[in-house]
Amino acid sequence: MSEKYIKDIAAELSLPSRGVAAAVELLDGGASVPFISRYRKEATGSLDEVAVTNIRDRINQLRELDKRRAAIIKSLTEQNKLTDELKEKVMAAETMSVLEDIYLPYKPKRRTRATVAKEKGLEPLAQKLFEQGVFDIVEEAAKYIDEEKKVANYEEALSGARDIIAEWVNENADVRAKLRTLFFEQGVYRSKVVRGKDTEGIKYRDYFDWQEPVKSIPSHRLLAVRRGEKEGVLMLRVAAPEEEAVRILNSYFLKAKNDAAEQVRLAVEDSYKRLLSLSMETEVRIATKLEADREAIEVFKKNLHGLLMESPLGHHRVMAIDPGFRTGCKVVCLDENGAFLMNETVFPVGSEAQMELCAKMIPQLVERYKVRFIAIGNGTASRETEEFVRGLGLPDDIHVLVVNESGASIYSASDVAREEFPDFDVTVRGAISIGRRLMDPLAELVKIDPKSIGVGQYQHDVDQNLLKESLDDTVISCVNQVGVELNTASKQLLTYVSGLGPTRAQAIVAYRQEHGRFNSRDDLYNVNGLGPKAVEQAAGFLRIRDGANPLDASAIHPESYSIVERMAKDLNVRVGELLRNDQLRSRIILDRYVTDLVGRPTLEDILQELAKPGRDPRVQFEAFSFKKGVTKPEDLKPGMKLPGIVTNVTKFGAFVDIGVHLEGLVHISQLSDKFVKDPNDVVQVHQKVEVTVLEVELDRKRIALSMKRDLQQHFGTKR
Description:
The chain is of the alpha/beta class.
């Protein structure tokens, strides 16, 4: 079955079968997606992470299908119902729904109306009616009157027989397939407000009397209306054209025009209303919810990727300020590596005496701890604090920056934060997180549950297991793409490195604490719990700056060191010289080093790494400032142009922070002068943009923005 699956996956994903087979073999051998896509290009034909992830997910789905297939065959065998024809159908089923349809007539059931009727001995009557021959149905039904079996009269006998026929209709795989198509192609979602919930559920008013085709409903609307249903505000149903459904059923089951056929017609109608329509509605709801979940999770993944790959400030001393009004601002200073130096509480917004003290203290701390960057969280009192600090007359080389603090409060109250800083309260931990977020967003954000970072769309409404798997994939991809400094990385960051995980990450931290810094990637073999396989998977993604081997600071895998050493030997130089000399590298002829195991893709990667060893793929850091004097929604006017930072991208547009404590929405129709289908094609999280204010609704706390260049018609004036 695996060979067939490989061909199927290759066809579905438009990938070469050889590459798919190699990826499956490597995955089965315990290799990670980042390792396969980075270090096994010759085997897979240079499949990227997306392709390898899709192969992994699809082979897992197909194997789950196989498990269910085996369970069904076992059940049929135990029931003595497995025939060659039935087995052939089971083995040929390509989807779970088709497989379950085949099994449905044989599936052990709870007591149903049909079960009760069979217990009363009415199955022969049902069979005779189902054949739709000409006979006196009253006379035939009267034969089944039996006080002991509780069949009081011929009407009860016919009713029971119809119940049996209704179940046969419901269990017919061909009919279910046709109705499934009808529901998905012509079905409609409908919602109405629950009586008395008009005021309480006003945020769902767009769905109080709403309908939309199943096949075209956007994921965000489906998740929104389902949330309204869950909160008891909306009644939600799925329905297909009933006349067409009944026509399909009648055309399949009605074979004559007589009294028996009329009984079948009644049974078919009952089957649709009582069984099939509800079953199909459930299938539609499950399938469309799954698709909506996948779309919402895909949006979340893209947003999370943008946030994790945000530009790092790097190794500079930082003062971080967690702003606040009543309780003041928590100030911390961090060294070049993010280590805590000090903390204090100041009041840039308060009494005159408090503000005077703050005005003296901040410059003193900047000078004492040689701070070059001041990071201010973007929460309450952020803009007021920023304006106060900027007005202190600090030296020109001191940069004041506003930092997105989403998730900092979650981190500050977490077990991770308590473990790192057991002697500090949550406010100090939060300020530390803000400072580190500026220095290296990725290293800090991995300490927070991705769902709490605030860049998702209905993240609490989607399948939580699927969400976790997808977000973990995203974090793993980003961490391994950037690489991790082995001697300074936190346990949380190391956890996401290929081949490690929580236990091995903790073992590495414990080794550092006991033995000091790692001098070579070879030292990894000395860590308890890290066998050769784990080291193979992890080594290329771990960096050692100023180590014994200069290649340990690069993404070149240790298994390829001998290739680099041969290159250096052929040029009669040392390896370190290759890292510093462009002219030497230009003399390397890659074809000389091609072998059965190492091809051009790996050699080209090696050459790129020699040019920029350990290069951070994230874009270079650029300072950003909000517009001066615009600090609250009341300051906004239609037509005003402002700098902003994208904080969240959804299917219907992008949310932008413009520094007024309330994010504005750039609707998908306002993202570009051209038609936009997917907002992610235009913007990504943490992108710096220029927006124009369209409308401000203070009572509804809504700000409408635009990124269109030509807005003269909207405002009636030329730019």
